[in-house]
Amino acid sequence: MEPIGSYGTTWADQWDDGPDPYPTQPKNTKAKVSKKVGDGVGKTKSVAITGMKKAKVGATAGFNWIKQKYTKTTKK
């Protein structure tokens, strides 16, 4: 049973008198997504390389500091 006053039409039929819009050109989302993913991988790789370089420098400095402290205490 339909509600009173609907006359068997939907809201879109009552208020939208134009045709439904259709996309004029098919979207090429696969190319866009793969380009974005490729850009993201490049950025991630560069950040990882930079982080590893910083870790290497920090570890080397820490190791040298420990080595100097050890040599100072053993020479006494």
TrEMBL record:
Region described as Disordered: spans on this chain: 1-40
Domain of life: Eukaryota
Record-given protein name: Betaine aldehyde dehydrogenase 1
